[in-house]
Structure formats: C-alpha cells, structure tokens
Design a protein that fits this description.
single chain; about 180 residues; alpha+beta; Nuclear Transport Factor 2, Chain: A; 2 domains; four-stranded antiparallel sheet; 5 helices; about 45% helix
C-alpha cells in the first residue's frame, strides 16, 4: 500500500483510508453541478458551441483545399527522389500511361543527369473538380561531361486518380532531352 506523508511524527494515511472520503466529495460535487445551472455556465456553453461551429467550418474549408497541399507534398517528394536518383521510387509517382516514357528517360540519362536543386514555383489547378493541374518548377542540373550548372523551368502536368496525384509529363522537354 502506498502511504501519504511518511515523515517521522506525521500521520500516515493509506490509499484505502482516503478513497471513501474522496469518492463522497466527488459524488456530492457532481450532484451539485447537476442541480445548479447558473447563467454564466449557460453562457460558457453557448460560447463553446459557437467556437465549435467556427472550428468545424474552418476544418471543412481547409479540407476543400487539401488537394493543393497533397499535390505540393507529392510533387516535392517526386522531385526530391529524382534529385537523389531514386528513379525506381520516383516511378511510383508517374501516371501508368506515361511510365514507359519515364523508363526510357531514366535508361538514357541516369548516368549523365545530376539534379542539384529544385524549387516548386506555382500550382495551377485546371477545372472545377481539380483532377488535373500544372506544377511550375525550376530545376538546376548538370549533365556529364559538362559540369556547368543549368537551370530550366518546367511546367509538368499532374493528374489525380483515386485520391493520389501522378505526374503525366511527356518527359521530352527541358532537362529530359
């Protein structure tokens, strides 16, 4: 048994001795709360209800633009994988219809292309349903045998299928040449 106190000369109370008094106090406190509802408590409940409504409406509005956040994260991950030459992992973000062109691009340039940085500049959503969008990105790279860096601006098309974003580029412009 745990004891409270425990110093020399103090009264040692065990948990079993305190528990009945504590439960009696909690029970009487709950009953008094149920019986007496004061005006300030009623106002606090109304304020809490209004605050909850504003909070939920904010969550709903944020959910409407969730496509923008998920597209930015997905595109950033894709370009990061390209930069570190994880082409096998990056292919998971390529639309199935364009995967053959991506694999051709990888086989032709995986040893020569070195991406040093990227910067997502803009997300452009097309249409009301936001199932297709464009991502403007600046990519800094160099290709062997040259070691001078070049910067190219790309506008890649991304499509949303089954809740996920996939790049649907032709892999023929800019650094893909």
């Amino acid at each position: 048994m745990k004891s409270i106190g425990g110093e020399q000369g103090s009264t040692v109370l065990t948990a079993n001795k305190i528990r009945p008094y504590f439960l009696t106090w909690v029970t009487s406190y709950r009953l008094s709360l149920k019986i007496v509802i004061s005006y300030p408590e009623l106002m606090r409940n109304k304020i809490a209800l209004v605050s909850l409504i504003f909070f939920l409406s904010g969550c709903y509005a944020a959910g409407l633009r969730n496509g923008e956040g998920s597209l930015k994260k997905t595109a950033s991950l894709y370009y990061n994988l390209l930069m570190w030459k994880y082409y096998d992992r990056a292919s998971a973000f390529v639309d199935e219809e364009k995967r053959g062109k991506f694999e051709k691009f990888v086989s032709e340039s995986q040893d020569e292309l070195n991406i040093t940085s990227y910067q997502i500049k803009e997300l452009i959503f097309k249409g009301n349903e936001e199932k297709e969008s464009s991502v403007k990105v600046l990519i800094t790279y160099y290709k062997y045998p040259s070691v001078s860096e070049k910067t190219v601006s790309l506008q890649d098309t991304w499509v949303q299928k089954k809740g996920n974003w996939y790049i649907s580029s032709d892999f023929e412009a800019g650094l893909f040449k």
